[in-house]
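Why do we care about 3D structure at all? Because function follows from shape, and shape follows, mostly, from sequence. That is the central idea of this module. The next example makes it concrete: a single protein chain, its amino acid sequence, and then its structure expressed as tokens.
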Amino acid sequence: MPLMLRFELHALGRPYHAALVRVGPRADSAPHAHVDFHELMCVVGGRGQHLLAHGPEPLAEGDVVLVRPWDRHAFTGRGPDGLEFVNVAFPSSVWRGFCDLSGIGADWENAPTPPTLRLDPAPAGAAFQTVLDRFHAGPTTVDLLRFWTDLLSLVPQPPEPAVARGTPPWLADACRAMRREENLRLGTPRLVELARVSPAHLARSVRRHYGVTPTALVAGLRLELAATLLAGSAEPVSTIATRTGFASQSYFTRCFQEAYRMPPREFRQRAQRAFVP
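And the structure:
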């Protein structure tokens, strides 16, 4: 059974997490999967293999891999120097929002194996080094967006079918609007209003494009906002529960603990420490 990694246990309130990882020659990393985040990795030195459920895939300098939450994987180093790569992890919900805005990503999300881009090593490595440097200096969401756009500029031609099969504009617009606090407080009925489709059609579309029910989608957005408020403010937990649309503090605490594996107060204490894994 692979390890299941959760974003906030590593990022602790930060918008993304970045690290330089080295896997020695003939050494293997632990098999793992993700609960709630995607990651992009770029090989910046050496060579190795990406160990996947269907078998190993070679990795060389300049290779960029998108790993989705459902991809179980590990790495092994090869040659005299092993494998060295920069890894950037970010919440799946934020990545999907970026994909909605940019019109990319559907082919990558639907691919049977983690998509691998064979890019020019110098500019690809520079983009990853920049986002790693910004992480160490104090990361912001703008840094993450710059990284994504810089990386996409290196991809020769995003496949046209990705736009054709992407999230419908009406659904993308409704989900973006639901991230606003005043809409989140009104819950799923507000999502139906914003989408301007029938509840049944909304439910089918949300499940198809996001893999969850509308209620679960709204709950996830509420908890994301709550995590941000806990990490970045001193507001009482009861106030944050109200602001994010939960009926009571006890229900909010139960939902938050189920999602983040710790109660809100403990999450705040950990998030507000200057801790880098």
